[in-house]
């Protein structure tokens, strides 16, 4: 017997038929004798609709049109998950399974005060576990918690992944299964490279890089939590027949296991290729090369909530002037240029240049730590295809390369094949 948390995303609970199908997945695990907690998202599209309603509600006279009370935003958008948790509990009961829904406040899942993007502080899983031990399935509304002021809070878009991993950590589950509309994590985006392969296992750190680089399988925060609490997390499809052979396999169900690197025996050097579109590059030319320039540039950008990514600074020839290049999301370029313009005197640069529509392609793998020449392989392969590199950054387990947008797909395919990821 094991304790399992099963999470179903919006497309998996999109209508009553799919909710019935989810109930069959749950029944399979219950029949096998496991203790089960289920975490659900809202029906797909529902949260968008709720957010839209909040945004289009008349505001207090004279208030800025974009400002609404964040506590009431949460009261509205948390309702989508309330509906699906109740519906799934009913569907399970109809199959003869003892099930009960739980809203975030009923557990409770305590969060901080950042309404709309709250972080989980504490989960008191005691009562839920007691009932699970008695054979009751807990059906938990994802995405929501209870703030310090006893008001409903939500965890930010995609937050029910985080609910699931946090609950798995709190109830010490043996596994957290994330059921979604894809059947696992792939070596790269299969829409770009049809030869992409589903990974059997991927290390937490690698998944964190893949997720933050736009492989949108999981909310990044959920991967961070899984890594900290070592929650073995499976990404698998809810659209497969719930009773197909192997679906209930405790050790090797179909899907991708995100786990500690020690569990990965045959580690490849490179695990995957990720990419992030719509990057822009900003260069400040002929800056004074003195202590405090970086702070003068990136301080005001941070205060304006502009997310700076790659930063490249040249060593100056004579110790007096240098160049600084960095990237921001394309959508933030105008704002960044304005902020830098306002601070021109404090920073002390000569000219600003910028270019949008760039793409960052990244090679990810913990095996890089112990292998030389991984970067050189990428540079050679891209050169052979005539792809120009505009900037490079590296970390222990990642090489990121900035290139022109139109070359994105070619670069992804080139890197995918140069590390042998095409071969099964
Ligand atoms: N329903 C929420 C959203 O759409 C949370 C989730 O699905 O993870 O963002
Ligand atoms: Mg999601």
- List the strand order in the largest sheet: 3-6-2-1-9-11-12-10
Low-confidence stretches: none
Report the top-level CATH class of the largest domain: Alpha Beta
Average pLDDT, rounded to a whole number, is 94
So how many helices? 13
Return the CATH architecture of the largest domain: 3-Layer(aba) Sandwich
Class by SSE composition: alpha/beta
Please describe the biggest sheet, giving its number of strands, its sense, and whether it closes into a barrel: 8 strands, mixed
Residue share in β-strands: 25-35%
Number of strands: 18
CATH topology of the largest domain: Carbamate kinase
- Rg, nearest Å: 24 Å
**Ligand identities:** aspartic acid, magnesium ion
- Helix percent reads 25-40%
Q: What sort of overall outline do the alpha carbons produce when their principal axes are compared?
A: globular
CATH superfamily heading of the largest domain:
Acetylglutamate kinase-like
Q: How many distinct folded domains?
A: 2
Gap between N and C termini: 34 Å
């Amino acid at each position: 017997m094991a304790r399992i948390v099963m999470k179903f995303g919006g497309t998996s609970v999109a209508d009553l038929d799919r909710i019935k199908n989810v109930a069959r997945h749950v029944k399979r695990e219950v029949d096998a004798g496991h203790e089960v907690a289920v975490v659900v998202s809202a029906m797909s599209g529902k949260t968008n609709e709720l957010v839209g309603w909040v945004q289009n509600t008349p505001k207090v006279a004279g208030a800025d049109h974009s400002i609404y009370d964040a506590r009431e935003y949460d009261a509205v958008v948390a309702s989508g998950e309330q509906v699906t948790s109740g519906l799934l509990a009913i569907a399970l009961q109809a199959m003869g399974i003892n099930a009960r829904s739980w809203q975030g406040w009923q557990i409770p899942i305590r969060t901080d005060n950042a309404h709309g993007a709250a972080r989980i502080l504490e989960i008191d899983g005691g009562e839920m576990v007691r009932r699970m031990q008695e054979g009751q399935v807990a059906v938990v509304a994802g995405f929501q918690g209870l703030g310090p002021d006893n008001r409903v809070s939500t965890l930010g878009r995609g937050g029910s992944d985080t609910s699931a991993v946090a609950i798995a950590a709190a109830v010490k589950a043996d596994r957290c299964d994330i059921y979604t509309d894809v059947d696992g994590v792939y070596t790269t985006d299969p829409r770009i490279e049809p030869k992409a392969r589903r990974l059997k296992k991927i290390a937490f750190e690698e998944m964190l890089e893949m997720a933050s680089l736009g492989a949108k399988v999981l909310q990044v925060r959920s991967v961070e939590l899984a890594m900290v609490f070592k929650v073995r997390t499976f990404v698998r499809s809810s659209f497969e027949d719930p009773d197909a052979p192997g679906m209930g396999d405790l050790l090797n169900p179909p899907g991708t296991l995100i786990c500690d690197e020690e569990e990965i025996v045959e580690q490849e050097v490179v695990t995957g290729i990720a990419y992030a579109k719509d990057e822009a590059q900003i260069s400040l030319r002929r800056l004074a090369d003195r202590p405090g320039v970086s702070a003068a540039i990136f301080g005001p950008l941070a205060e304006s909530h502009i997310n700076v990514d790659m930063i490249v600074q040249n060593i100056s020839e004579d110790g007096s002037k240098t160049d600084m290049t960095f990237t921001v999301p394309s959508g933030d370029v105008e704002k960044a240029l304005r902020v830098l313009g306002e601070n021109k005197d404090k920073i002390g640069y000569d000219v600003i240049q910028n270019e949008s529509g760039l793409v960052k392609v990244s090679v990810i793998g913990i095996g890089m730590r112990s292998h030389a020449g991984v970067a050189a392989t990428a540079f050679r392969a891209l050169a052979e295809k005539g792809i120009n590199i505009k900037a490079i950054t590296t970390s222990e387990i990642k090489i990121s390369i900035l290139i022109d947008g139109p070359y994105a797909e070619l670069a992804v395919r080139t890197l995918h094949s140069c590390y042998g990821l095409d071969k099964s």
